[in-house]
Design brief:
CATH architecture of the largest domain: 2-Layer Sandwich
CATH topology of the largest domain: Nucleotidyltransferase, domain 5
Oligomer: single chain
Number of helices: 11
Strand order of the largest sheet: 7-6-5-8-9
Helix content: 25-40%
Radius of gyration: 23 Å
Number of domains: 2
Strand content: 15-25%
Order of helices and strands: EEEHEHHHHEEEHEHEHHEEHH
Amino acid sequence: MTNVTYGKGEILCRSGDRPDSLRGINADDFGADELSYQKEATYLVALGRVRRSEDAQIRLVGSPKGMDWVYKMVRNTGCANFKQTIYENYFLPKSYIEDLERQYTGDFAKQELLGEIVDFDGHATLISRKDVREAIGRQYVQHDNDVRIGSLDVARFGDDKSCFLVRKGFKLESIERWSKLDTVQLSTIVAEKIMNLNIEVLVVDGTGGYGGGPIDQLKRLVGNYCTVIEYNSSFKARDHHYFNLRAEVWCNMRDWIKGASLPNDEILVEDLANLEYFYNKNQIQLEGKDQLKKRGLPSPDSGDALSMTFFAEQKNKKKANVKPMRSGFVG
């Protein structure tokens, strides 16, 4: 909460995260930045504070976030609107713009670089539901240099399910879920899968310490046959455009899905298509599991498990154990 004296007047600065702090204010004008990342209720409270001038001007700034409440408000009220692309922002270095061009593709690039309104299923979802549906059953020809990677997301609580999946190249070969297994039981089952399926690399989620036991057990059981890697979603991303490792591997997965083959698994579809993103100091950040819970959605365990395979790929490329994949998309 900050007040700035300006001439004979005063500028009141308030956070959109606390709409109650806007109450009791009588203002002549109103402005808001990053409006699409604010709740509509916050905007309405602020608008109601503009009481002192009949010719008040409302200035709203922000990046598009699909056909959300901001889009509908602008369309229905006839507001004057001005669009500026990233190429018209003379304060951005050319190298920074080129980095974004390499990172963003398709509709996501239209939204973030060109300021266009793109319908991401009515939400700011990271992965398009259309892309996920089109990947189901897609034909894919595997190559000899495709590495078979396993991924294990360990259950957090009693009724949660551990998720184990196997990806080879651009094909998600299998996905299984188990509940109410102790560390030894879970590790034994996964070890058998590793040996039977000839899995070369296994990545296990160690975030929060839940995967510590299975990691130790699996290294002991299959460490001589399979590279076991610990993953932590809060680790720093290699690319500075991402808030953390979780955001980076999910974005890698988003690009992979456009040429991938997925099984017809409805839980996986929902996990992939429901997760939303936002910007935190110009870095892509994904909503947390607590935020999903507030929206009445479960933890995207299957999506997290699949995204973790791209961390395994990063690690093994550094060791030259895994050759870069070639797309086998044939239709």
